[in-house]
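Question (not urgent): is this output format expected?
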Amino acid sequence: MAMQATVRWVEGRMFVGESGSGHAVTIDAPVASGGRAMAPSPMELVLMGTAGCTAVDVVMILEKMRQKVTDCVVEAQAERADTEPKVFTKVTLRYRVTGKGVDRAAVERAVHLSAEKYCSASIMIGKTAEMVHEIEIVEA
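Got this back:
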């Protein structure tokens, strides 16, 4: 399955990216790289995409397990290499799943399936970074 994206320069270090499905996002470089930090940087988008990818997986899997999930938040934190290319070296994904009587084992299974089988983004990032998964369950 092919994907497509187009990125167009706006000014300075700001760009607008458009997905093949027609969704747009503004991209800006960090101040240290000559940008104005008016929008997410490319690496912030990679981190958000990774968190979004696994969040979608976890919610879908938990729904299939008939867990009564009412909210799912994935907080992502990344450490980067000090030298170019400044790849992610460690990514911590903190899952906060809220629901009624949500089974911890089910959440652990969903996170594991996402990390090992379904989340293309985190599996790619895992080629250069240590991946850490933390889980918190909140009773609704």
